[in-house]
Amino acid sequence: MARIAVFKAEIDDSPDVLRWLDRMLIRLCQKFADYRKEDPASFRLTDNFSIYPQFMFHLRRSQFLQVFNNSPDETAFYRHILDEEDVNNSLIMIQPTLMSYTFDVPPQPVLLDSVSIKPDVILLLDTFFHILIFHGETVAQWRKAGYQDQEGYENFKELLEAPVADAQDLLGDRFPIPRYIVCDQGGSQARFLLSKLNPSTTHMSTSMYGSSQAAGAGQAIFTDDVSLQVFMEHLKRLAVGAQTN
């Protein structure tokens, strides 16, 4: 589907391609999902198709179909690589992988979501084209204070080194070589991570503009894009034939 969409994007306007992609997704859900007509709450996809809609959500937001902020050469390069690579690498391009590093638990994959950003966590993002290490606010402050070089903070030093080692493994096995980025929460380079995350927490999530997020709620992303949750709600309504407001 991604390759067909990219091919159509070479001929048609981006909004037309997105509408075509939406129609194909709705038709698939109507054919393969279990539901009662006009009852979105009854909508269920089988295990084989359960994560397909979220891949389409990320494909719609990807650099393959959204050309804003990319030069024509960059867009052509991204689309060419998608057409050339195998399925595993293509899936990473569409929905990047996100690993979390913290003191409490071993490194583990986490949701590609704004709620995964926490002050005491380091994140490793692999978009195939970028390898990014993101330090949460607290971790960044400790690093700048030099705690990793002080006696008694060996565990913090190991925490900083773990994602770097994993990133080097990815860089060594990847061609073309990805861009390597190390950034902190609130820094300018953090935009590479924020642009890929599902914006489940935005500046509209709080009752007052600029008010602080609840503990553990993740970072607010300033965007007008709909979240995956809203996307799925509308998909369910359209698939079962319910009225949409």
Report what the structure shows.
- The protein has about 240 residues and is α+β, with helices and mostly antiparallel strands.
- The chain folds into two domains: about 120 residues, Four Helix Bundle (Hemerythrin (Met), subunit A), CATH 1.20.120.730; about 100 residues, Severin (3-Layer(aba) Sandwich).
- Helix content is about 40%, strand content about 15%.
- The strands form two sheets. The protein has a five-stranded mixed sheet with strand order 4-3-5-6-7. A two-stranded antiparallel ribbon has the order 1-2.
- It is globular and about 65 Å long.
- About 5% of the residues have low confidence.
* SSE order: HHEEHHHEEEEHHEHH
Number of helices: 9
CATH class type of the largest domain: Mainly Alpha
What is the CATH-assigned architecture of the largest domain?
A: Up-down Bundle
Main beta sheet, described? Answer: 5 strands, mixed
Share of β-strand residues: 5-15%
Helix content: 40-55%
Distance between the termini: 29 Å
Q: What is the CATH H-level superfamily of the largest domain? A: Sec23/Sec24 helical domain
> Structural class of the helices, strands and pairings?
alpha+beta
Q: How many beta strands in the DSSP annotation?
A: 7
Domains, number: 2
Radius of gyration: 20 Å
Stretches with pLDDT under 50, minimum 5 residues = 207-215
Q: What overall geometry do the principal axes of the alpha carbons give? A: globular
